Amino acid sequence: MIAAFRIPGAGRLKQAETTRFSFDGRSYAGVEGDTLASALLANGVHLVGRSFKYHRPRGFLSAGAEEPNALVEIKRDAARKTPNVRATVQELYDGLTAQSQNRWPSLAFDVSAVGDIASPLLSAGFYYKTFMWPKSAWKNLYEPKIRAAAGLGVAPDQPDPDHYAARFAHCDVLVLGGGAAGIAAALAAAETGVRVILADEQADFGGSLHFESGAKVDGQDGFAWAQGAVATLKAMDNVRVLSRTTAFGYYAQNFVGLVERVSDHLPNPDRELPRERLWQVRARRVVLATGAIERHMVFADNDRPGIMLASAARTYLNHYGVAVGRNVGVYTANDSAYAAAIDLKKAGVGVAAIVDLRDNPTGPVIDEARALGIEVNFGRAVIRAGGKLRVSSMTVQPKNGGGERTIPVDAILMSAGWTPSVHLFSQSRGKVVFNDETKRFVPGIYAQDCVSVGACNGTDGLSATIDEAYAAGAKAAKDAGANTVKGTKPKVDASESWSRGMLGAAPGAGPDTTVKAFVDFQNDVTAKDIRQAVHEGMRSIEHVKRFTTNGMATDQGKTSNMHGLAIAAETLGKPIPQVGLTTFRAPYTPVTFGSIVGHARGKLFDPTRKTAIHPWAEAQGAVFEDVGQWKRAWYFPKPGEDMHAAVDRECVTVRKTAGLFDASTLGKIEVVGPDAAKFMELLYTNPWEKLEPGRCRYGIMLREDGFIYDDGVVGRLAPDRFHVTTTTGGAPRVMNHMEDYLQTEFPHLNVWLTSITEQWAVIAVQGPKSREIIAPLVEGIDMSDEALPHMSVREGRICGVPARLFRMSFTGERGFEVNVPADYGEAVWEALWAEGQKHGACAYGTEAMHVLRAEKGYIIVGQDTDGTVTPGDAGLDWAVGKKKTDFVGIRGMARPDLVAKGRKQLVGLKTKDPKVVLEEGAQIVGDPKQAIPMTMIGHVTSSYWSENCGRSIALALVAGGRDRMGETLYVPMPNGTIEVEVTGMVFFDEKGERLNG
Amino acid sequence: MKKYSVFAIAREAMRGHKGWEEQWSSPEPKKEYDVIIVGAGGHGLATAYYLATVHGITNVAVLEKGWLGGGNTGRNTTIIRSNYLYDESAGIYDHALKLWDGLSQELNYNVMYSPRGVMMLAHNVHDIQVLKRHVHANRLNGIDNEWLTPEAAKEFCPPLNISRDARYPVMGATLQRRGGTARHDAVAWGYARGASARGVHIIQNCEVTGVKRAPNGAVTGVETTRGFIGARKVGVVAAGHSSVIMNMAGVRMPLESYPLQALVSEPVKPVFPCVVMSNTVHAYISQSDKGELVIGAGTDQYVSYSQTGGLHILQHTLDAICEMFPMFTRMKMLRSWGGIVDVTPDRSPILAKTPVPGLYVNCGWGTGGFKATPGSGHVFAHTIARDDPHPINAPFTIERFRTGRLIDEAAAAAVAH
Amino acid sequence: MLLIRCPYCEEERPELEFRNAGEAHIARSPNIAGESDDDFEKFFFIRSNPKGIIYERWRHMHGCARFFNAVRDTVSDRFLMTYKAGEPKPTKLPGAAK
Predict the structure, then answer these.
(1) Fold (topology level) of A1-158
(2) Would you tell me how many other CB atoms lie within 10 Å of the CB of residue B20?
(3) pLDDT tens track for B288-306
(4) Whose CA is closest to B263, among B293, B290, B304?
(5) Of A251, A705, A894, which is closest to C44 when you measure between CB atoms?
(6) Do residue B254 and residue C47 have CB atoms under 8 angstroms apart?
(7) Average pLDDT in the C32-54 region?
(8) What is the domain extent for residue B395?
(9) Contact residues, chain C to chain A, C-beta under 8 Å
């Protein structure tokens, strides 16, 4: 059955192909190709929403992306709910479920609509002037109430099951907007053979040809021509055509962000399809063909459902075959609304009257309207609309005052003129200029390689538009490198043309009135709100905007900004250009977070780095921790063990027999070349020239400001070759730091730097039995203490695999670090593990590693130091080459405050009660009895239970710490103060005998 | 100044809101003032307000090249907190926080300070160490800040994803309950109204083009697009443009200006009760009274005065937001924008006298200046009025970069190991 | 996202491949250890931060990995030119900003 307001034979949809949908629980029939808006209108439904502040009933203002009123929730299932969807843009699919928003208990009866009655109290900015007493009431009473009343739809409450795709693209000519102008420009550019992308936000190309029944191009109806031209473009190899694709942001250097809506219009989207796709396009030239948007008339109660833009009514009729009423009124200040009246009249819809604010306009459309028998009134204004849930009448008065006449209507079509869509142009940082004659801002000074054509450029009429666009498309192609133009320009046979119109409030809504004449529908901003803002001293249009919220709703002022500006200018008594435009900000229309995020969700949020030995650790049930992007084995719990039990066992086992530790994440850089030692001298505080090949040294790297940047053991493999290790998190920045100095400050040095972090798997074998575990697998290296003393390195083979074997220790035990090519890492680990098992060795994780090194007072850069600690502070003066005249940081560390007395120094702390483990980050004071705020003299940097020591141990940065040995200090905690004694940093094997034990 | 109240609104409602007076006047500049403040953002206007109310200095002009509150004041994500690590930072931010509490009443302008709590997330062991260090230091400084388990964090902020399977799972959080948000425009307007009522001239569309100095070096006034305006003292509070103005006076600054972007979603019903920040995944989010999710991004990597940044920066931010709050992928970005933030080498502000007699500077707030607005204005007014810093801003000198006495909150937190 | 011409690779690549490395032409003194506190402050902390033409360093991090210099307008973010590290600061700049 055909819906009540669908006109048989009208429009372009196949009316036989029906589809079911529901709105607010009621089921309706639509037609394939409908939008939700056209389908509801076909069923006579105008009331679809409530406004933001006053909760006034609202219908459809538009038939497009500029819609401020008709926002609904679309729900596919519990997890696929989308709030604030414009019904004028949402394509209908079979089974679509929509719901109105921001009303309770129902759309027709919304209790919050009392706000409308109380509206004199809710004037612009009222909330800045009240809700201040009592003080606590803002947070506890007023704000919660205001927040509950505000907001529109309801946010989804479940993770989104849909996925989003992303593409990067390059092209020579990017054409934004697929109306007549965009198509003509794309044709001209495409015919030269350059790479062209043409994008349009709608499902079908054609733009205003959707409704312009009077347009004829190349002998066809304008819309049909557009479809044919787009088909031609689609068939060309050098052209990509994107429909349902909105260019939302124009960034520096012709970089444009677009979102393609891939599956929101489909009844049962294939799960493989993304919901939306982000296109990031870099174009040599951009053609802006973004059209113009019709403005409404600003008069009392102009927001009643049934009152809409004339072009919208025309679109619903000419494209969707839907009449927006049975007896419509027209209120206009320019010619274009006449065309709507004419089309409706011809389709059999009653047109009660055209009310034209102009005094004596002339032209063919006016003659035609009259010829069709439509009543035309000049010099008159609609001063008020009647009705509440639906417009029921319009009250007309001569614009300079006089007798009123009320005309019953069920819809009002209005047009105050057209606003060029300069959003993207402005985002490109172009400057608009105001044309006083046509009352519009048009592109003036360009900042990027782009050109505006057609309505967005202030060009009127199809013929002029196609001339301009075709020439611009050809020029863009030429500028992008094309040689030849070989196409033919489309020929315009018939065209509609209009311009002019009015800005600001219409008569009846002038300065001396108190009526509600809406400028911004969604945010309930009226003409008088704007005047009030000006009266209150808001002279900048930006202040007016922020004070009234005009143009800040989800439509971002597409229909309201120019009216608001004109009213403000009038009130200020200044010309419009002097008051200025507010900034156009991306996005052009709201963009789904998901489409910006794309694939970067869950596991793909950030890369995960795993070592070669990771699978083994995983199989052993290791618990992992995140360190930068790395997953590191934290501890290896046995059945029944908690973290502490596991760590205690691991720590004891390492010192009793041995332990295996995956140290592969440590950064590794190979410094190679004749000047390698000179380079090392400059980048590290230590001396390197005299380090013998085969020996290692602990190195400290500073930033130029003298603070510790990184540390690590460095092995000299050969006179011209160093194997440098860095902290896990520091590897990339250390590499960058080294490259920076090598390339820019010390380019005379003949050195190459290679990151080898991922090339070598590193297995630390530590403990008294470590040599016994490794030795059976090693070939070509003498492992005796004489041949391979502590802090030395040899190259050889292990398990038949090339290896760099370091004799070094981060535990204080006899220790080795086995470097093998990463591909063999797991196999070598398994072999070492098998040997280790014979001796009762364990695998240990990062936590045990931390405890073991703390027992020996070895620091961890980034934990025991932060970016404010010098080598002196950390007790590492011994590692600074005293005779050196230059290294990075040598000057910074000599600054007055860095050598002053009383700096925080790294020390050990022992709690008086050995069972008490301090909390890392806890603050230290000298006098526990002082009042808050207390003077803090330091903080705990590392703190553990040491099973090996049988007590807790801690490291801390304490002001003048090394002069406080033996002193009692205090750590005030919420549940009591802990007494601590300042000690040296070595808690275990102070003499260091176990290195060779 | 006519008092704002619900009664005033009712009275005005009766006569169509035509009796409201201008919130601030727009006078022509005089030839000379006792003090000129360059920059009518929140900090500059607050400085003028406190010069008038605390120090009785009302012969003051605030010069603004655009519209008041149009810089970072009107572009930030309005987060207020004071749980800083170092005594110096904690001192100035908590001074501000105490002034926030009661500012609406002080100004008779509802700035909507909403202490709904600021949560900072820990995603790894290092974060826990750093954030707990803050909690302990804050406690001994008398600043509220508490540690929450992941479960407690979720209870406080239900949309938070605390799944152990997240790429960077939440391992805990700090919560400063007095932290929250305020209405940024209202802060600028409230101070402007209060200052204007006390005789301060707020002169918009007046760009400073030069700083004049006497032969002895002292400041004598500023050249502007509206002519020369004399002054004995000039306070530069120009945010991203501070180094530009200071250069006019011959003072080179340790500052770099970067684009900082933010965005809001479409408005929705209340869904997000507090402020959540994560340094590790780089995201900041709250919900405005209007219902928009307000989301802050990081800075772009290069110096720029363009007030725009790259899409990839927003992308990274939204990645992080949707990772922490996976139900938000279907939300829509309504508006994005950029500001220019001036950053010092230690990311702490400079609020100080300068080598030029009569010239004072308040800059370098980086990405976090809004929260300090009342405190910053209060102590900067003191510094100008007395030609001597207030004890609270005494550490925030320019000279600290020469001596090395930095106040480096980020260095204390950001070094990974 | 900026589009940056790497003077070594001789092509324009997206900003994601590059890392900004701060102001250019601030040379580290060969006798840095002997510098005054003031000079060190100038070298390490003071920046020109111009509103307009900036000389800055970039690294083609995910490309050739070379550091190079660029001249850019900080108001429009438009690049005027890029050149190799070690080349002198250009005295003549191609075409003023549009």
Answers:
(1) Ubiquitin-like (UB roll) (3.10.20)
(2) 20
(3) 999 999 999 989 999 999 9
(4) B293
(5) A705
(6) yes
(7) 97
(8) 25-81+85-107+184-254+346-414
(9) 1-3, 14, 19, 21, 27-28, 30, 32-33, 35, 37, 40, 44, 57, 59, 61, 65-67, 76-78, 85-86, 98
